[in-house]
Amino acid sequence: MSPYVHKNIINGIQAMLNFAQDVDLVDEIMDQESIKVVQDIEETDKIDEDLGAKIKSLWNDPILMQLWDRRSEFQIIESFAYFMENIDRIAQPDFEANLQDVLHVRVKTSGIMVDRYNINKQDYELYDVGGQRNERKKW
What is the reported pTM? Predict the structure, then answer.
């Protein structure tokens, strides 16, 4: 699950930087060096301590805080703030996602997925339907 946590953080910080560019605020962000590094990373990259520090520096910038307040104007997961509060832990080399991380992570699904569980001799089925607009016709 740890790669999904890293992916959520990378997608989130890049979405914020893209929005900063869209509203002509990117040049007002103090740590321009970190912007260049973060814009060039892939969503599949692992967040190490150095990259974590750069992401944290950007998150703590007053411009990004203003943009976070405007998050209804661009697409970003609500749990991004949770991950940023925990970026120091997540950037550690031995990071393993804990229960709270798993509950906050977003993993895109497509179509309809069914998981079956048996708990205390009781059968359960959990249906996950892709929630994006283009997936809804499959419901």
Answer: 0.83
Residue 129's pLDDT band, with cuts at 50, 70 and 90, is confident
**How far from chain centre, in Å, is Cα 16?**
11
Judge whether residue 113 has pLDDT over 90.
no
Other CB atoms within 10 Å distance of the CB of residue 30: 14
CA dihedral sign of residues 101, 44, 41, 47: positive
